[in-house]
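Residues determine shape. Take a concrete instance:
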Amino acid sequence: MASLTETAYYTRRAINWSIIGLIGYILLKILWGILIAVYIMIFPPKAPPPNHAFGSLPSLKFPINAASPSGQLIFQLQTIQGSVPDASVSANVYFMPKTGSNLLALSTAQTFAKRLGFGTNPISDPTNNNIYRFDDPTAPLRHLWYDVVSTNFIIRYDFQQDAGIFLNSNVPTSEEAQSEARNLLQTYGLYPQDYTGGDVTVTFYKVSQSTLVTVPSQSQADAVRVDFYRPLVANTPIVTGASGGPISIIFSGSKNTQRRILQFSYTYWPIDYQTSATYALKTSNQAWQELESGSGYVLKYPTGNVITVRNVYLAYYDSLDPQTYLQPVFVFEGDDGFAAYVPAVDPTYVDATH
């Protein structure tokens, strides 16, 4: 029978060996994790091939304006890399569901117009059967254009016809304008859930020859604009076909409710983030060549026709017009605010007839 001294001795040895074993196990696990991380870094796993599950995609439709095409420009590439940076070989494309017209669509529009202080007698747009105009019976310069299918709309106040609107006005600060804009969207149930966490920008304007031109500060401003943007999708930014967010509000400094909003532009197309497919992309060099050859859409046209491009990246294009899928584009940015887009999906998987 072992003595108490022997029992204590063997117990201490067992404890010591257990501690050493535990430490060794932890060190081996850490070392193994480091080895796996290094191996993945050196030999990264190949991404699964694109599934092209939606079939042929419709070609992207960019706005037609004086800023396009890019073929009228001469491009110089001066990126940090010294070349067009490599892009991923594939990207997700997301389904964008659309709602059809219904028998209550016009009634819904009339109810919405009434809540905003407009009359309920719709005036149809001769160029688009889905759009109706509503006028404010007590403020003839104030109008609402409403799309009964998409429920997108735009409110405008013809400030050019109101000489006194900017006299003795008090333009809100950046923080005040953001708060007022958010409250307005939330009051009317217009703040989309998937805009949460997106960027919000504020721009100050001064009236010059009946148009709004940007100024650097509130002290010089006659109006302030708040733009709302979606947050990143799959760590990728979203761009639009306009110089600003799909949802934007321009406030004057007037305390009169009917003269307060100079413009309220609301364009929202839902995205089904759970329904997506992967598509092969062009190389960034292919996109650059298309831009140089005149196939790109120029969003912001600078002065002069020689453009220095300094930044190239992938983004998703959220059109102001309805589109069935959220597709990626190459974005080219340069001096003097230049910006242009080139569709990114491999043309093999794009139906140019749609």
